[in-house]
Amino acid sequence: MKYCRFQLDSQAHYGLVESVAGKDEITRLLLRPPEQMGGDIEDLPTKRMDRLPFAEARLLAPVRPSKIVCVGRNYREHAAELGNEVPAEPLIFFKPPSSLLAPEQQIRRPKLSQRVDYEGELAVVVGRKCYKAGPDEDVRPYILGYSCLNDVTARDLQKSDGQWTRAKGFDTFCPVGPLVTDEIDPWAGVSVETRVNGETRQQGNTRDFIFPLEVVVRHITQVMTLFPGDLIATGTPKGVGPVVAGEVIEVSVEGVGTLRNPVVDEQ
Ligand code: MG
Fold first, then answer.
1. How many whole angstroms from its chain centre is CA 45?
2. pLDDT in tens, 32-59
3. What CATH superfamily classification does 68-265 receive?
4. How far is the CA of 26 from the centre of ligand 1 (A)?
Protein backbone atom coordinates (compact mmCIF):
# COMPACT_ATOMS: atom_id res chain seq x y z
CA MET A 1 0.00 0.00 0.00
CA LYS A 2 1.17 3.52 -0.84
CA TYR A 3 -0.30 6.66 0.71
CA CYS A 4 0.41 10.37 0.88
CA ARG A 5 -0.86 13.48 2.67
CA PHE A 6 -2.01 16.30 0.47
CA GLN A 7 -3.96 19.51 0.45
CA LEU A 8 -7.33 19.70 -1.26
CA ASP A 9 -9.84 22.55 -0.86
CA SER A 10 -7.49 24.06 1.77
CA GLN A 11 -7.76 20.93 3.94
CA ALA A 12 -5.19 18.24 4.68
CA HIS A 13 -6.13 14.70 3.62
CA TYR A 14 -4.52 11.30 3.47
CA GLY A 15 -4.81 9.66 0.06
CA LEU A 16 -4.28 6.20 -1.37
CA VAL A 17 -1.73 6.23 -4.20
CA GLU A 18 -2.20 3.68 -6.96
CA SER A 19 -0.71 3.15 -10.37
CA VAL A 20 -3.33 3.67 -13.06
CA ALA A 21 -2.21 2.90 -16.63
CA GLY A 22 1.42 3.34 -15.56
CA LYS A 23 0.88 6.69 -13.81
CA ASP A 24 0.54 7.28 -10.07
CA GLU A 25 -2.81 8.72 -9.04
CA ILE A 26 -4.48 9.50 -5.72
CA THR A 27 -7.56 7.30 -5.99
CA ARG A 28 -9.28 7.34 -2.59
CA LEU A 29 -9.34 9.42 0.58
CA LEU A 30 -8.20 7.64 3.73
CA LEU A 31 -10.56 8.53 6.56
CA ARG A 32 -8.03 7.88 9.30
CA PRO A 33 -4.25 8.43 9.44
CA PRO A 34 -2.74 5.01 8.56
CA GLU A 35 -0.34 5.22 11.52
CA GLN A 36 -3.34 5.24 13.89
CA MET A 37 -4.57 1.83 12.70
CA GLY A 38 -2.37 -0.18 15.08
CA GLY A 39 -0.75 -1.88 12.09
CA ASP A 40 -4.04 -3.12 10.59
CA ILE A 41 -4.11 -0.88 7.58
CA GLU A 42 -6.23 -3.36 5.62
CA ASP A 43 -9.19 -2.19 7.74
CA LEU A 44 -8.57 1.47 6.94
CA PRO A 45 -11.86 3.16 6.00
CA THR A 46 -11.70 5.02 2.67
CA LYS A 47 -13.94 7.28 0.65
CA ARG A 48 -14.38 7.89 -3.07
CA MET A 49 -12.81 10.98 -4.59
CA ASP A 50 -12.18 12.35 -8.06
CA ARG A 51 -8.89 10.80 -9.08
CA LEU A 52 -5.98 13.19 -8.93
CA PRO A 53 -2.67 12.70 -10.78
CA PHE A 54 -0.03 12.30 -8.05
CA ALA A 55 2.28 14.71 -9.89
CA GLU A 56 -0.36 17.46 -9.64
CA ALA A 57 -1.19 17.02 -5.94
CA ARG A 58 -0.15 19.66 -3.39
CA LEU A 59 1.77 17.25 -1.19
CA LEU A 60 2.33 17.65 2.55
CA ALA A 61 4.85 15.78 4.69
CA PRO A 62 3.25 12.29 4.79
CA VAL A 63 3.68 11.83 8.56
CA ARG A 64 3.13 13.81 11.75
CA PRO A 65 5.69 12.30 14.14
CA SER A 66 6.03 12.99 17.86
CA LYS A 67 9.78 12.71 17.26
CA ILE A 68 12.33 12.08 14.52
CA VAL A 69 15.14 9.78 15.65
CA CYS A 70 18.17 9.73 13.37
CA VAL A 71 21.07 7.33 13.08
CA GLY A 72 24.50 8.86 12.42
CA ARG A 73 27.22 6.96 10.56
CA ASN A 74 25.31 3.88 9.47
CA TYR A 75 27.30 3.40 6.25
CA ARG A 76 31.00 2.56 6.54
CA GLU A 77 32.16 4.75 3.65
CA HIS A 78 30.27 7.79 4.93
CA ALA A 79 31.86 7.47 8.39
CA ALA A 80 35.25 7.36 6.68
CA GLU A 81 34.63 10.41 4.47
CA LEU A 82 34.05 12.61 7.52
CA GLY A 83 37.10 11.11 9.27
CA ASN A 84 35.02 9.21 11.84
CA GLU A 85 35.50 5.71 13.22
CA VAL A 86 32.81 3.13 12.52
CA PRO A 87 30.80 3.24 15.76
CA ALA A 88 30.49 0.16 17.99
CA GLU A 89 26.78 0.76 18.48
CA PRO A 90 24.25 3.03 16.73
CA LEU A 91 24.76 6.74 17.31
CA ILE A 92 21.38 8.42 17.62
CA PHE A 93 20.22 12.03 17.69
CA PHE A 94 16.98 13.98 17.16
CA LYS A 95 15.57 16.34 14.62
CA PRO A 96 12.60 18.32 15.97
CA PRO A 97 9.19 17.86 14.30
CA SER A 98 9.33 21.62 13.59
CA SER A 99 12.06 20.89 11.01
CA LEU A 100 9.66 18.85 8.81
CA LEU A 101 9.23 20.03 5.24
CA ALA A 102 6.87 18.92 2.48
CA PRO A 103 8.00 17.81 -0.97
CA GLU A 104 8.73 20.75 -3.34
CA GLN A 105 8.94 23.23 -0.44
CA GLN A 106 12.05 25.35 0.00
CA ILE A 107 14.97 24.38 2.24
CA ARG A 108 16.24 27.62 3.83
CA ARG A 109 20.01 28.02 4.33
CA PRO A 110 20.17 29.87 7.66
CA LYS A 111 22.33 32.97 8.09
CA LEU A 112 23.91 31.26 11.12
CA SER A 113 25.63 28.65 8.90
CA GLN A 114 28.20 28.92 6.11
CA ARG A 115 27.85 25.27 5.05
CA VAL A 116 24.59 23.38 4.63
CA ASP A 117 24.79 19.76 3.40
CA TYR A 118 22.23 17.32 2.00
CA GLU A 119 22.05 13.77 3.45
CA GLY A 120 19.72 11.47 1.51
CA GLU A 121 18.27 8.68 3.68
CA LEU A 122 15.67 5.94 3.93
CA ALA A 123 13.04 6.90 6.53
CA VAL A 124 11.14 4.33 8.60
CA VAL A 125 7.58 5.18 9.68
CA VAL A 126 6.58 3.52 12.96
CA GLY A 127 3.15 1.83 12.92
CA ARG A 128 2.86 0.38 16.42
CA LYS A 129 3.98 1.55 19.84
CA CYS A 130 7.31 -0.07 20.68
CA TYR A 131 9.31 -0.05 23.93
CA LYS A 132 12.26 -2.31 24.74
CA ALA A 133 12.12 -4.56 21.68
CA GLY A 134 13.63 -7.90 22.67
CA PRO A 135 16.95 -9.26 21.40
CA ASP A 136 15.34 -11.80 19.08
CA GLU A 137 12.16 -9.91 18.41
CA ASP A 138 11.05 -9.36 14.81
CA VAL A 139 10.73 -5.57 14.47
CA ARG A 140 8.86 -5.63 11.15
CA PRO A 141 5.40 -5.58 12.81
CA TYR A 142 6.31 -2.20 14.32
CA ILE A 143 7.09 -0.70 10.92
CA LEU A 144 4.22 0.82 8.95
CA GLY A 145 6.27 1.77 5.91
CA TYR A 146 9.10 3.73 4.38
CA SER A 147 9.75 7.09 2.80
CA CYS A 148 12.59 9.34 1.59
CA LEU A 149 14.16 11.83 3.99
CA ASN A 150 16.79 14.54 3.62
CA ASP A 151 18.72 14.97 6.89
CA VAL A 152 19.80 18.53 6.03
CA THR A 153 22.77 19.51 8.21
CA ALA A 154 24.61 22.74 9.02
CA ARG A 155 28.01 21.01 8.87
CA ASP A 156 29.96 23.92 10.38
CA LEU A 157 27.68 24.12 13.42
CA GLN A 158 27.77 20.32 13.82
CA LYS A 159 31.54 20.59 14.21
CA SER A 160 31.66 23.72 16.38
CA ASP A 161 28.75 22.90 18.72
CA GLY A 162 29.59 19.32 19.72
CA GLN A 163 25.87 18.79 20.34
CA TRP A 164 23.99 18.51 17.05
CA THR A 165 20.72 20.14 17.99
CA ARG A 166 21.32 23.39 16.10
CA ALA A 167 23.08 21.73 13.14
CA LYS A 168 20.24 19.30 12.54
CA GLY A 169 17.30 21.25 13.86
CA PHE A 170 16.65 24.36 11.75
CA ASP A 171 13.16 24.78 10.35
CA THR A 172 12.98 23.22 6.84
CA PHE A 173 15.90 20.83 7.61
CA CYS A 174 13.80 17.65 7.43
CA PRO A 175 12.11 17.19 4.05
CA VAL A 176 10.12 13.91 3.97
CA GLY A 177 8.07 12.26 1.23
CA PRO A 178 6.67 12.09 -1.35
CA LEU A 179 4.70 9.10 0.02
CA VAL A 180 4.85 6.17 2.45
CA THR A 181 4.95 2.61 1.15
CA ASP A 182 5.14 -0.82 2.76
CA GLU A 183 6.03 -2.45 -0.55
CA ILE A 184 9.83 -2.38 -0.18
CA ASP A 185 12.23 -4.54 1.82
CA PRO A 186 15.31 -2.71 3.16
CA TRP A 187 16.75 -6.01 4.44
CA ALA A 188 16.88 -7.27 0.86
CA GLY A 189 18.47 -3.96 -0.21
CA VAL A 190 17.00 -0.82 -1.75
CA SER A 191 19.03 1.90 -3.40
CA VAL A 192 19.26 5.38 -1.84
CA GLU A 193 20.35 8.11 -4.22
CA THR A 194 20.80 11.88 -3.98
CA ARG A 195 21.07 14.27 -6.92
CA VAL A 196 21.83 17.99 -6.94
CA ASN A 197 20.57 19.78 -10.06
CA GLY A 198 20.22 16.35 -11.67
CA GLU A 199 23.82 15.30 -10.96
CA THR A 200 24.25 12.16 -8.85
CA ARG A 201 26.09 12.83 -5.58
CA GLN A 202 25.19 9.85 -3.37
CA GLN A 203 24.49 6.26 -4.34
CA GLY A 204 24.06 3.74 -1.54
CA ASN A 205 22.11 0.62 -0.72
CA THR A 206 20.42 -0.33 2.54
CA ARG A 207 22.07 -3.76 2.40
CA ASP A 208 25.27 -1.88 3.41
CA PHE A 209 23.85 -0.60 6.71
CA ILE A 210 26.37 -1.09 9.52
CA PHE A 211 23.39 -1.56 11.87
CA PRO A 212 20.34 -3.22 10.32
CA LEU A 213 16.88 -1.97 11.27
CA GLU A 214 16.30 -4.53 14.03
CA VAL A 215 19.46 -3.31 15.78
CA VAL A 216 18.44 0.33 15.33
CA VAL A 217 14.89 -0.20 16.63
CA ARG A 218 16.14 -2.25 19.57
CA HIS A 219 18.78 0.36 20.43
CA ILE A 220 16.33 3.29 20.33
CA THR A 221 13.62 1.49 22.28
CA GLN A 222 15.90 0.57 25.18
CA VAL A 223 15.72 4.32 25.89
CA MET A 224 12.42 5.68 24.60
CA THR A 225 9.03 4.53 23.37
CA LEU A 226 8.50 4.78 19.65
CA PHE A 227 4.95 5.93 18.91
CA PRO A 228 2.88 5.39 15.77
CA GLY A 229 3.90 8.00 13.21
CA ASP A 230 7.40 8.50 14.60
CA LEU A 231 10.18 8.63 12.05
CA ILE A 232 13.57 6.94 12.06
CA ALA A 233 16.17 8.38 9.66
CA THR A 234 18.47 5.46 8.97
CA GLY A 235 21.73 7.20 8.04
CA THR A 236 23.28 8.51 4.86
CA PRO A 237 25.66 6.91 2.33
CA LYS A 238 28.94 8.50 1.30
CA GLY A 239 28.99 11.57 -0.90
CA VAL A 240 27.56 14.27 1.38
CA GLY A 241 28.29 17.80 0.30
CA PRO A 242 27.15 21.42 0.44
CA VAL A 243 24.36 23.13 -1.46
CA VAL A 244 23.78 26.77 -2.32
CA ALA A 245 20.69 28.82 -3.08
CA GLY A 246 19.17 28.04 -6.47
CA GLU A 247 20.10 24.35 -6.38
CA VAL A 248 17.52 21.56 -6.27
CA ILE A 249 18.06 18.44 -4.15
CA GLU A 250 16.40 15.13 -5.05
CA VAL A 251 16.48 12.11 -2.75
CA SER A 252 15.29 8.88 -4.36
CA VAL A 253 14.64 5.60 -2.58
CA GLU A 254 14.01 2.62 -4.85
CA GLY A 255 10.34 1.67 -4.73
CA VAL A 256 9.33 4.85 -2.88
CA GLY A 257 9.93 7.67 -5.35
CA THR A 258 11.72 11.01 -5.36
CA LEU A 259 11.66 13.75 -2.73
CA ARG A 260 12.50 17.07 -4.43
CA ASN A 261 13.25 20.38 -2.69
CA PRO A 262 14.79 23.62 -3.94
CA VAL A 263 17.28 25.55 -1.76
CA VAL A 264 17.04 29.25 -0.93
CA ASP A 265 18.93 31.59 1.37
CA GLU A 266 17.19 32.83 4.52
CA GLN A 267 16.05 36.43 3.98
MG1 MG B 1 22.05 11.74 8.57
1. 25
2. 999 988 877 778 999 999 999 999 999 9
3. Fumarylacetoacetase-like, C-terminal domain (3.90.850.10)
4. 30
